[in-house]
Amino acid sequence: MPDTITITDDRTGKTVTVPIEGGVFPSSAIRELDPSLFVYDPAYMSTAACRSEITYLDGANGVLRYRGYPIEQLAGQSTFLEVAYLLLHGELPTAEQYDQWNHEVTHHTFIHENMRKRFVDGFHYDAHPMGLFVSAIAALGTFYDGAKDIENPESRHKQILRLIAKTPTIAAMSYRFSQGLPFNYPSNDLSYPANFLNMMWKIGDYEVDPVLERAMDILFILHADHEQNCGTTAMRVVGSSHADPYSAAAAAASALYGPLHGGANEAVVRMLNEIGSADNVPAFIESVKAGEGRLMGFGHRVYKNYDPRAKIIKETAYDVFEVTGKNPLLDIALALEEVALSDSYFIDRKLYPNVDFYSGLIYQAMGFPVEMFTVLFAIPRTAGWLAHWQELLNDPEQRISRPRQWYVGVDERQYVPIDSR
Ligand code: ACO
């Protein structure tokens, strides 16, 4: 069987044959048939918008790999900083490269005092930390002359370092501000996750618990990239106009903020609180099946199997609960999962727990308020966004993103002056 596809335009009888490679065929076939013909593909359901070497995802079989390494191995053996290096450079670092990378990131964690004093103070006292985070990422770019120098690899590297190093600082600052607490400066002698936890929680003699430090690192690894999701696509679309990476990352973070994307873990905890007890689970499932809402944390555009990240998060949850005590919402979540996975509504639609189903329970047990959940997602995802941004800029096939539309509005008509309408 040839690995080609032949498309015939029945209006003209013209035929074009193009190769199918890796399950993809070039849309140039359509342009060749008729340059004024476009493919209607709302939400890009059938469109591969780029070639990428970063993350492999097989949704049917629940497989996720960064640069070829299975997510289970990375979560079991690696650190987030090593994974960030891998995503950005394509290879795991040597010991020497890792030391240098660690040193560089650690020494870029501070933010300009004006960011903290003038910029953040302008927000209302109860501003949502994710709104503050999005704005702060965009504002950060205005502090660096080189931010717009995206053609220069050295400057690009510097901006990447700054964004990866400063997002935990901005995240912790957003939280402390919303609580009226004084800002904790970064501590360069702590690991990436420990420094973040320290900036979040340090009051008096606080010491980071190693189990929670490792759990945070695992959660960061699991959230570091997920190929062309909504946020990463926003990063690429904005990056394609050659905007600076801070503006592009702010756009990506805005996309992540939505409840159908990174905001889902917040929605999961709210849903579990509303259900209130495992006894109410069957009635809740019936209401979802009746179309009265969605089972948040279930379903995924790409995974039609158990999300491999959800499996790892569920295991990590038990380690965290050893330290923090069990989150009482766990029993409701387990009951929901059990009922949903044996119900034909969810089975037929291939709806399984996604990454957000259990992550919120861990975050809550660690003391994070629900408003911080998407911020916790955005910290590690910044590494993925930047890896895609870099790949985009180095890809000779990429140009400014500019989809076409199917115009369905009224045809030409004549302007009527207001007093004659
Ligand atoms: N609960 C109940 N039914 C669902 C759910 C759900 N969580 N998700 C999908 N369905 C149903 C839909 O009603 C639809 O049923 P129908 O065919 O009878 O109309 C069918 O499954 C297909 O759903 P779509 O909305 O077409 O699937 P899509 O791929 O567009 O949506 C999405 C994916 C947005 C993730 C969806 O499953 C959802 O809303 N889930 C809940 C929110 C969530 O957990 N989001 C986090 C995703 S992971 C992440 O972004 C990090």
Features:
mainly alpha, two-stranded antiparallel sheet, three-stranded antiparallel β-sheet, globular, binds acetyl coenzyme *A, 421 residues
Bound molecules: acetyl coenzyme *A
Number of helical stretches of at least 4 residues: 18
Class by alpha and beta content = mainly alpha
Report the sheet with the most strands, covering strand number, pairing sense and barrel closure. Answer: 3 strands, antiparallel
Tell me, what's the shape?
globular
Q: What low-confidence regions span 5 or more consecutive residues with pLDDT below 50?
A: none
Q: Give the strand order of the largest sheet, numbering strands 1, 2, ... along the chain.
A: 3-4-5
What is the CA-CA span between the terminal residues?
Answer: 63 Å
Beta-sheet strand percentage? 5-15%
What Rg, in angstroms, do the CA atoms define? 23 Å
Helix content percent band: 40-55%
The number of E-state strands comes to 5
Output mean pLDDT. Answer: 95
Helix-strand topology string: EEHEEEHHHHHHHHHHHHHHHHH
What oligomeric state is this?
single chain
